[in-house]
Amino acid sequence: MMENNKIYKYHRYLSPLDVWAISFGCTVGWRAFIIPGSTFLPAAGPFGTLIGMAIGAAVMLIIGANVSFLMRHKPGTGGIYTYTKEVLGRKHAFVCTWFLTLSYLAILLVNAVSLFTVVRTLFGSRIQISYRSYNIGGNVISLGEVGVSMIALACVGLLFINAKPLLQKLQTILAVFMLAGILIVAAFCLPHLGSIREAFSMSGSFGLQGNSRPFAVLSVAALTPLAFFGFESVSLETVHFNFKAHLSRWIIAASILFAGIVFIALTLISVCAAPDGYTSWQTYIAGLDHMTGLPSVPSFFAAKAIMGDAGLWIIAFAALAAILTSMIAAYRATMRMLATMAENHLLSEKFLTTNNSIIIIMMIAILLSVLGRNVIEYFMDLASIGAVIGFGYTSLSAWKLARKQGSGLSAAAGAAGAIASAAFAVISLIPKITSVEMMSKKTLLLLSLWCVLGLVFYLYTAVRSGAARRIKA
User: What is each CA distance from 312 to 174, 321, 325, 448, in whole angstroms?
Assistant: First the structure.
């Protein structure tokens, strides 16, 4: 009862639309504009992507049902950490939180460093931010790229400290405009799918790598934890809902479905037009690695080619909105995770204060941004592992709690989500199960280091918590 009494002390300011904006905004970031050309189309083509994303969205709806089940039956702060702790214990909760925090931080970083890409794609050589660069691990990093990232991270962080209500309204508005912009571009571009006749022909609709159709579809479906990760972040906001928690099932379902629509729409937009000299989407996508400027982002190029400057500015604004909503939601989720760890004596009580957490997150993110986009993409690969771990623990907790309550349907959903999460983990960690390399050697090295660091951190906090309890006794 103490937890329930505590809930009503919180300010309830989030409407259903606000909660949807957090969930949808965290899910759809810059990766939704890049993954279709870099990964989906080479692996499975437009038709294979459509099938794979539909399968993935169906799995995510099951996991989303598990999240909303726990939100209704275990309301309070902490989200997935709290669910895992109460059902499976403190150690499992720490493992879950350790990786989820990294995942949210990775989302924040990847979107921040992507802002420069949008600017250069739009303006090309006309913008002279900085051509000076430096090298880290063989990757050339522009000072202009780092500068834009730092400014974006600082601006969002300072708005959290000084104008949080304004930032919440801005996120909701941007999420709505982002979805509207993508749907408008899709409405104009998709009728031109026939302009590239083989877009959906059986000979060319399943990618460029010569994979069998089931293998191509599996390759896309296996990426759905990374594509959809972020919708569950609203579980950290339950105490701020100004509506009954049972509505969360529909809000989460809506964010997953709209995210799936966005990924599919941007994939199909990407094959609606090709630059001069390319006779098919296959030859165009195959040559993306050698392109710069507008043609290097197929969805941007198609919008410009079919709709003119208006189309380019609409999709560019949608991309900027996606980046900003994802950054805001990731800041918010990381802050909540740190506060939860502080409440459970895994971090200093200073992290219970929003301003302190935001400043620390901002400083860490700004420091890491100097690594550049290519290096930070390794963190994004780690984010997929964090997503799988979070989804797995959520589903397992839902299954165990549902069995205890005698809810057969919810128990079945929990079991299905746990099995799916285990399958995603196997696919992520074992090479060549799909045509997409999920874990490079560098990413596996980072994963190992993060695991070792987590073990050391947990042992340190366990010893410190034990000493504190002995002193109080």
Answer: 17, 14, 20, 42
What is the Cα–Cα distance from 371 to 365, expressed in whole angstroms? 10
Query: Distance (Å, rounded) from C-alpha 180 to C-alpha 265?
Result: 12
Close Cβ partners of 282 (under 8 Å, ≥ 6 residues apart): 198, 204, 208
Residue corresponding to tokens 């059986």: 202
Long-range contacts of 289-298 (CB under 8 A, 24+ apart): 293/120, 293/121, 293/124, 294/121, 294/122, 294/124, 296/121, 297/33, 297/34, 297/37, 297/121, 298/36, 298/37, 298/41, 298/269, 298/270, 298/271
- For residue 124, give the nearest of 394, 353, 316 by alpha carbon: 316
Q: How far is CA 359 from CA 101, 109, 158, 393, in A?
A: 16, 15, 8, 29
pLDDT truncated to tens, each residue of the chain (473 aa)?
Answer: 333 334 345 678 889 999 999 999 999 988 899 899 888 998 888 888 999 999 999 999 999 999 999 998 877 677 888 888 888 888 888 888 888 888 898 899 989 988 888 877 777 655 555 557 777 666 677 777 788 889 999 999 999 999 888 888 999 999 999 999 999 999 999 988 765 455 555 555 677 766 788 888 888 998 888 889 999 999 888 888 888 888 999 999 999 999 999 999 999 999 999 898 888 888 899 888 888 788 889 999 999 999 999 999 999 999 999 999 999 999 999 998 888 888 887 777 888 888 888 999 999 999 988 887 777 777 777 778 888 999 999 999 999 999 998 888 999 999 999 999 999 988 888 877 776 766 777 778 888 888 888 888 888 776 665 544 444 44
Q: Which helix (H) or strand (E) holds 469?
A: helix 441-472
C-alpha angle 162-165-169 in degrees, rounded to nearest 5: 130
Q: Which residues contact 29 (CB under 8 A, 6 or more apart)?
A: 107, 110, 111, 114, 230, 322, 323, 325, 326, 327
Cβ atoms of residues 159 and 167 within 8 Å: yes
142: left (phi > 0), else alpha (psi -120 to 50), else beta? beta
Q: What is the DSSP string of 75-127?
A: -SSSTHHHHHHHHH-HHHHHHHHHHHHHHHHHHHHHHHHHHHHHHHHHHGGG-
* Calpha distance 464→448 (Å, rounded): 24
Q: Under a CB-based contact definition with an 8 Å cutoff, are residues 355 and 161 in contact?
A: yes
Kind and range of the H or E element at 134?
strand 133-136
Contacts of 245 (CB under 8 A, 6+ apart): 71, 72, 75, 238
**Side-chain half-sphere of 61: how many Cα atoms within 13 Å?**
13
Do 21 and 255 form a contact (C-beta atoms < 8 A)?
A: no
